[in-house]
């Protein structure tokens, strides 16, 4: 009996020892503990606590912020990748594309911010690494990666006229969007057009992709017009955002309006309402009448090719009824193919006497567009983009307001009714 008791006593002592050993293993495996005594987890005088405290004291106070946040998608191409720091100064910022191409940028004079030097590209992943120091010279580091908005999820507007140009009094601001706009009011609110002449300007949506803006009457001579696009981040359609931030200015030149009379076969060129030259013309034949109405010169070509097949004039074999590869001094009046241009192939006698064209307005000219003394050359040299050509007495319908830059053929109340705001 006594021997069995002693055996159990030894067994209990062995279990206690094993338990103590396991407890020691658990304590040694922990980073920090909440116990007292030998474990030392809550003792601020232990070596580990002192190390942690020293590390905290050495941490930089500089706080770096990178926008957009790490992992962002659909980021702006205009306002992204801004790096700022508080309680310190920036010492180094690097930005690269996912393939390692460096993006140039500059730290501000006060070393508190950084931004790229140029607009970012769409559908591109960028990586940013930034370093800053605090007043004690201790470094802080921050990294971020983001992806800019993709073409599928963004829209841009192609506008005319170009920045810094001088145009005629009939030139509207015309914007064509590469995506259909369903939230027209939001987009229109992000676009402003103003003029130093003080004229009221209204914008008109022809469809989901095009908006033109103009005053009630032609622009005032010498005025400066400003177009501001503040479309960055504007949702034009579900999940489709604008990316443009741009200011464009253009100047209005002298007031030149030309009047083509298909009955008299004469064109009167006026400046400030005064006739400066009368030019014989040949308009569309009775079978191919020229549109009537106010038309704006939208393009100029010293020489260009005109193929009837491109505008529906074909013969029985499907070939163009005409194909002239060197039409001189051509100026576009409609998107559908109406031009006012030089004509060297017709007899000189037709100008001022008979209408023979397929719908264009022809002026006497020479092959090669190298004679400055012809009526075609003179009119070309004395015209600019945005000048108005008013065509009358052809017997055809008035040109559609959206066929070219010809919104002047819509009355003011109807024009304003096409605004989304």
**What is the approximate shape?**
elongated
What is the second-level CATH architecture of the largest domain?
Beta Barrel
* Class by alpha and beta content: mainly beta
Helical segment count = 5
- In whole angstroms, the N-to-C terminal distance is 105 Å
Strand content: 35-45%
CATH fold naming of the largest domain = L,D-transpeptidase catalytic domain-like
Which residues sit in consecutive blocks of at least 5 with pLDDT less than 50? 1-42
Count the domains: 3
State the helical fraction: 10-25%
CATH class of the largest domain: Mainly Beta
Pathway: Cell wall biogenesis; peptidoglycan biosynthesis
Domain L,D-TPase catalytic: 256-392
Protein name: Ig-like domain-containing protein
Keywords: Acyltransferase, Cell shape, Cell wall biogenesis/degradation, Peptidoglycan synthesis, Signal, Transferase
Question: Can you tell me about this structure?
Answer:
This protein is mostly beta strands. It contains 5 helices and 27 strands. The protein has 3 domains: 63-149, Immunoglobulin-like (Sandwich), CATH 2.60.40.3780; 153-253, Immunoglobulin-like (Sandwich); 256-407, L,D-transpeptidase catalytic domain-like (Beta Barrel), CATH 2.40.440. The protein is 14% helix and 36% strand. The strands form 7 sheets. It has a 5-stranded mixed β-sheet, with no helix packed on it. A 4-stranded antiparallel β-sheet has the order 1-2-5-4, with no helix packed on it.
Main attributes?
elongated, mainly beta, 36% strand, 5 helices, Immunoglobulin-like, 421 residues, five-stranded mixed beta sheet, L,D-transpeptidase catalytic domain-like, LD-transpeptidase, four-stranded antiparallel beta sheet, single chain, disordered N terminus, Transpep_catalytic_dom, transferase, cell wall biogenesis/degradation
């Amino acid at each position: 009996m006594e021997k069995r008791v002693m055996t159990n006593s030894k067994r209990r002592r062995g279990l206690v020892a094993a338990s103590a050993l396991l407890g020691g293993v658990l304590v040694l495996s922990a980073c920090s503990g909440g116990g007292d005594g030998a474990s030392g987890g809550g003792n601020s005088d232990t070596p580990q606590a002192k190390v942690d405290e020293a590390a905290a004291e050495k941490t930089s106070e500089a706080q770096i912020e990178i926008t957009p946040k790490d992992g962002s998608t659909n980021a702006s191409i205009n306002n992204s990748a801004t790096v700022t720091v508080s309680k310190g100064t920036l010492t180094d910022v690097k930005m690269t594309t996912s393939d390692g191409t460096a993006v140039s940028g500059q730290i501000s004079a006060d070393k508190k911010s950084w931004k790229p030097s140029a607009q970012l590209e769409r559908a591109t992943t960028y990586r940013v690494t930034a370093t800053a120091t605090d007043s004690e010279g201790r470094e802080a580091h921050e990294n971020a990666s983001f992806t800019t908005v993709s073409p599928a999820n963004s829209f841009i507007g192609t506008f005319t006229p170009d920045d810094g140009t001088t145009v005629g009094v009939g030139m509207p601001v015309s914007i064509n969007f590469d995506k259909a706009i369903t939230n027209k009011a939001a987009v229109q609110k992000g676009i402003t057009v103003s003029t130093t002449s003080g004229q009221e300007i209204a914008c008109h949506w022809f469809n989901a992709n095009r908006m033109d803006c103009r005053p009630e009457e032609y622009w005032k001579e010498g005025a400066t017009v400003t177009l501001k696009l503040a479309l960055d981040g504007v949702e034009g359609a579900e999940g489709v955002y604008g990316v443009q931030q741009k200011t464009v200015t253009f100047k209005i030149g002298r007031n030149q309006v030309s009047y083509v009379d298909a009955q008299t076969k004469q064109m009167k060129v006026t400046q400030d309402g005064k006739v400066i030259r009368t030019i014989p013309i040949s308009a569309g034949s009775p079978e191919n009448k020229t549109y009537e109405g106010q038309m704006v010169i939208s393009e100029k070509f010293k020489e260009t090719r005109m193929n009837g097949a491109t505008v529906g004039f074909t013969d029985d074999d499907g070939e163009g009824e005409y194909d002239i590869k060197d039409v001189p001094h051509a100026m576009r009046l409609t998107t559908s193919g109406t031009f006012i241009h030089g004509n060297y192939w017709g007899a000189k006698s037709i100008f001022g006497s008979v209408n023979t064209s397929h719908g264009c307005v022809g002026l006497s000219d020479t092959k090669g567009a190298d004679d400055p003394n012809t009526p075609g050359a003179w009119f070309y040299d004395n015209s600019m983009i945005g000048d108005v050509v008013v065509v009358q007495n052809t017997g055809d319908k008035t040109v559609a307001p959206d066929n070219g830059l010809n919104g002047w053929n819509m009355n003011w109340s109807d024009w304003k009714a096409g605004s989304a705001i």
